[in-house]
Design a protein that fits this description.
Blueprint: H1 2-10, H2 14-26, H3 30-42, H4 46-58, H5 62-74, H6 78-90, H7 94-106, H8 110-122, H9 126-138, H10 142-154, H11 158-169
Helix pairs in contact: 1-2, 2-3, 3-4, 4-5, 5-6, 6-7, 7-8, 8-9, 9-10, 10-11
Length: 183
């Protein structure tokens, strides 16, 4: 059924695609649930998308957990969104760890933000490396900030690369490099 959904999707037949992925979901296929959640979110049918992403998430699909979190945020269900993002982060998703850090930072929960950005950085997530570097620099932990900035730049993070070049070229206030970021 899932493959029939893919075929219908390739042929530009969303109603038929939805039919097959619904049938796949009813038969217990979590990938069909994920695919349908994705399609419904693209169509801005967010309540329905959340239902299908939740089915896939309950089956352990980490990407579905992250997407469910985003949909729940869109629906104004921030506590539920945070819970699913936390579950994805606990499963080792570096992007979820970074997003969780950003969520905590916006809520002025900076210790938790740093903790999750560090975990994301250690998982290889370049945006978490960059965010952690900014926090470390703001705390005057310049050497560790440079280390994470370099790692992010090596993974193709554009802002990190530019800042790394600037840090090498000039010194900021007090004779030390300074990263311009979220502070």
């Amino acid at each position: 059924m899932r493959n029939l959904g893919y075929l219908a999707d390739e042929r530009g037949r969303p109603e038929e695609c939805e039919k097959w992925w619904r049938a796949g979901t009813e038969a217990g296929d979590a990938t069909s649930a994920y695919n349908l959640g994705y399609m419904l979110a693209q169509q801005r049918r967010m309540e329905e998308a959340a239902q299908f992403y939740e089915i896939a998430s309950e089956a352990g699909d980490v990407e579905a957990m992250v997407n469910l979190s985003n949909v729940l945020d869109h629906l104004g269900r921030e506590d539920d969104a945070e819970q699913w993002l936390h579950r994805a982060a606990e499963q080792g998703d570096g992007g979820a760890m970074n997003n969780l850090g950003s969520r905590y930072f916006k809520a002025r929960r900076t210790d938790e933000a740093e903790e999750w950005w560090r975990k994301g950085a250690e998982a290889g997530e370049r945006e978490a490396m960059y965010n952690l570097a900014v926090v470390l620099d703001a705390r005057n932990d310049v050497e560790e900030a440079k280390r994470f900035l370099k790692a992010a730049a090596q993974r193709g993070h554009g802002r990190a690369r530019r800042l790394q070049e600037e840090m090498e070229a000039e010194q900021g206030p007090g004779g030390r490099p300074h990263i311009q970021g979220i502070f």
